[in-house]
Amino acid sequence: MLFIILAPLIGFIINGILFSTPLKNKLFKNSGEENINKTVSFIACLSVFISAVLTTFLFFKISGAEGHNISITETLFTWINSGNLKISIEFLFDPLSSVMALVVTWVSFLIHVYSIGYMHGDKSYARYFSYLNLFVFFMLILILGNNFPLMFVGWEGVGLASYLLIGFWYQDLEKSYAGRKAFIVNRIGDFGFILGIFLIYYVCGSLNYQDVFNTLSNPQFLSGVSTTIITAIALLLFVGAVGKSAQIPLYVWLPDAMAGPTPVSALIHAATMVTAGVYMTTRCNLIYSLAPFAQYVVLTIATLTALIAALIALTQNDIKKVLAYSTVSQLGYMFMAVGTGAYIFAIFHLVTHAFFKALLFLGSGSVIHALSGEQDIRKMGGLRKLIPTTSWTFLAATLAISGVPLFSGFYSKDEILGAVYHGGFPIIWFIGVITAVLTAFYMFRLYFLTFEGKSRMSYEEKKHVHESPSNMTIPLIVLAVLSVIGGYIGFPEFISHTMGIGSSNLLKHYLSGVIYNVDIAHNASEAHHLFGHWTLLMISVIAAFAGILLAYLFYMLKPAIPTTLSARPLLRSLYRSSLDKFYVDELYSRIFLSPYYHFSEQFADFDNKIIDGAVNGISDNMRCLAGYVRGIETGVLRIYAASMFVGIVLILIAIFI
Amino acid sequence: MVQSVFFYIFAILSVTGALIVVSHKNPVTSAISLVLTLFCSAVLFVLLQAHFVAAIQVLVYAGAIIVLFLFTVMFLNIREDALHFDAVNVPRKLTILFMLLSVVGYFSYTASKKVFANTVLALNDNTFGTVEGIGKSLFTDFLLPFELTSILILAAIIGVVVLAKKGDF
Amino acid sequence: MEVTINHYIVLGAILFTIGAYGVFTRRNLIVVLMSLELMLNAVNLTFVSFSQLYGDLTGQVFMIMSVTLAAAEVAIGLAFVVLIYNNYKSLDIDLLKILKG
Questions:
Q1: Which structural domain, as residue segments, surrounds residue A637?
Q2: Which domain holds residue B13?
Q3: Between the CA of residue A334 and those of A63, B146, B166, what are the distances in Å?
Q4: Do B27 and C31 touch (CB under 8 A)?
Q5: Does residue A630 belong to the interface with chain C, where contact is any CB pair within 8 Å?
Q6: How do residues A372-420 score in pLDDT, each as one tens digit?
Q7: Which of A547, A570, A593 is the last residue of a domain?
Q8: Judgement on whether residues A538 and A595 belong to the same structural domain of the protein
Q9: Between B73, B93, B149, which is nearest C68 by CB?
Q10: Which end of chain A, N or C, is less packed with Cβ atoms under 10 Å?
């Protein structure tokens, strides 16, 4: 199992050291650039492929085994051994981490293959692949670690890799600022996370998953520990998730992160890194189940995030920004599931979201590649006939994310909404439905403006439009297939019961060993349950189609409607604020950044005047002193002789007296 | 009795010579009076029954070394008016010297009185200080220093040749 | 008055002081060297007088070594004097101030 993690690390090292540094020029002077790039991409893809294959192998091993609780651990060595604290490097491959690892490794592999085509001709080709491998390495550590510090190592590591990759084209200052912003905002979340880890150690005395969860499920222990501390732990861990998984208020880095290359956005900010927060909260589901207040907080923040991000996404004009806000919104859905205790559905949505969001990003990358860098959807249109593969796969993903039946997103989203409703939160359920309408609307707006209708490009641009090479389109097709059929692993139970089909929810069955309260609590009295399962399903379907129809109306049939609507004063101001991301960045800048800059300017002055003054002052003192001492060396030999003589006389007197 | 007369005469003579060495502006005069001082020293050596040493003093010191000095002075051919840098404030210098001398004389006299308390110099046996006596001592007890001085002289010769040679070797 | 060892000691001290005074005061390089010889001579006198006092020939032997040493030193010193005169065209010691720092 070690090699699952080591393979990408080795890939990173080889690519990073051999190919990215000036060493490359010395060693490989004779091969052409093409050959170097081929070797680099081969090594990178091979290492991730090895990880993916090994993960699959281990997955079959544990899924075929008896009972739910089978898992594989592997301990390497003791990392920290100080007093009572003993942390070792050990890895855990249990159902939850196997699902995550499968998603991560296979999607990474597809994205690596895609990157071969997308980054073709870039001058930092090797550096890109080495960073990608590094990212996979850290993500795997995060997922497969068996204790909290190791997860934190992976957590920080993916933050680092994200920074490196967002600011990949660092020569452009804006892009490197985006990378910096991502890292800093992430770090704020990590602060909360680490405080949570400290508290866990304080309460449970160990940082190993098994120890912590065994302690916390022991009722005797629980009676001695106040709920407040558990709530505090849960909330602090959630702060970490807020930072990493872009919830309110720490989501601001994700739209800016679109400055990185598109495959990076696909991998990190759609499928894997941002889902680390969901993984972490699911892993700690016991803690959250013991702290209902924390669950409420999670639920509230998640819902707000989902709604607000969807509102912003309505008006954005850059393909990638729409997708970024869509990611934030879908992450909100995942955390909504966490908030109601429906962890399995959160993971389910995570998996399906990985498929279709990665597909969406890769598809948009393909569009950008086809249009040689154009990202504004107002300048696109009519691309379906020109780049058919991209547009059909993109359509598949858009249908999935909108929650159209039979596609994967439908099952996962519907399960979440059902869980929220039956958990006793009707208002939140309603907001979720509205957000689903909005999701369908803006995704199809994106699709229609980009691929359908009359082309708004100039003739020159149209001539250059070309379909992407096969190493880009094949991953698109694979992901499209997964987006369609991936929903069936979590096929809802009630449908199968009604239809008499034997198979139950595979995912739920598989993960039940890890989740402690498998069935969602049916809070609130039955009176609230106006709607049964089937009704909820219908409402979701209606919501999806409503959104699609609205988008069709606005953008295909009567394109004049959006313009006239936005001209009216009330709607216009709403439109502007949505377009400007509700001014959150500006708000942060006013509240946090300006005072901080002001403050540090004061300190810069202090540093210049006082500290430099002190250091320079010392050297000036020395020089003065040296000047005095220099007077002894007159250079006149007689003085030297005389002083020697006087010295000897004095010594003799001193001896003989 | 006779000894003390001789001693006083030649002691005063040597001190006078020393004073002239130190104060006269012309280096040739200084050299000649240095000869005087050394010669008086040689006489004092004889009084001290150090016959061989006295001969050596005259031969080497007064004979070779001073001659070398005179060679150099003549060789450098210094003009009279270029020597004025030394002639400043001679009376003042001499007074300082006399004061210094009186201080030194007083201190050394009292110090030596404390240590030696007027020990009269008695006569040693006949071979003391003769060539035979020195020879025996030099070539038995002090053979190693003797050989080493030859190396020293060799070093001095090489040094002088290196220093005085113009251009490359 | 009988001549005792004290007289010789005092004489040695006086001659030494005169020599030392000459080394520090004179500006002519050659005269400095000559005063140095004077100092050596005073020390030799003291050696010999002590050898007479103790009846031990070590003092005289040492005086011979001292004379040899003085000869070697004068040789090299005068070679220096010649070199200095060639460079500075004057024998003033106070002109040798390059080490002033």
A1: 583-656
A2: 1-85
A3: 25, 104, 97
A4: yes
A5: yes
A6: 777 777 777 777 777 777 888 888 888 888 888 777 778 788 878 888 8
A7: A570
A8: no
A9: B149
A10: C
